[in-house]
Amino acid sequence: MKRETRWNAGFLAAGAALLTLAMAPNAVAQDLLDTADAGVEITRDPADLPHVLQPQSPEDADVADTVLVFTNESSSPMRVRCEGFNKNGRPVGRAWVAIPNRGLRYIMASDLSRGRDWVGQVHCHGSAQVRGTAVLLGRNLTDLPAIQARDGFGRLRFPVVATY
Q1: Tell me, what DSSP letter sits at residue 42?
Q2: 13 in a domain, yes or no?
Q3: Is 19 part of a structural domain of the chain?
Q4: Is residue 140 part of a domain?
Q5: Residue 125 near residue 81 (C-beta atoms within 8 A)
């Protein structure tokens, strides 16, 4: 084999490896979303979200829940898997949601705990093209922080989540 041919083959192999690495974060993120251990699928109708995002009546002043909203900015459908942890760091529950391309879906903190009261945080995994927002529903609406890692794996953390 000629020396130039070996160099060309080496460059082609290196180029293929770099291309694979460039595409890997999205593929890895979706592979991590094996729904067999992700808990229950949440299938709330996004058309109901405007009705959900209303302040509670004075009679329900002692009731609160957190809405976790996910927006898919890509042209491919995505899945997001979430796990809730109570104030002591113990798992409360898991759930996942399928988001259509350029669509929006949401889950409630009470979905993760199957209706039990809890205060803590939620960690979610999905694609880097999925953005998260959190809103506390109570007597008033309160925007809560959503921290998104910019590492290509789509990790989202909601540090303050409550339902009671």
Answers
A1: P
A2: no
A3: no
A4: yes
A5: yes
Considering the entire predicted model, what is its pTM?
0.75
List the structure tokens of 62: 């002692």
Residue 126, both tokens: 């999905």
On whether residue 5 sits in a domain, the answer given is no
- Which residue matches tokens 């979303």? 33
**Sign of the CA dihedral running 13, 19, 22, 27:** negative
Residues facing 70 on adjacent strands: 105, 132
Mean pLDDT of successive 10-residue stretches along the chain, which has 164 residues: 56 51 47 61 92 86 91 95 96 96 96 93 94 92 89 87 93
Helix (H, G, I), strand (E, B) or coil at 99: strand
Give the residue numbers spanning the domain of 69.
32-163
Per the structure, the count of domains in the chain is 1
Instruction: Assess contact for 103 and 96: CB atoms under 8 A.
Output: no
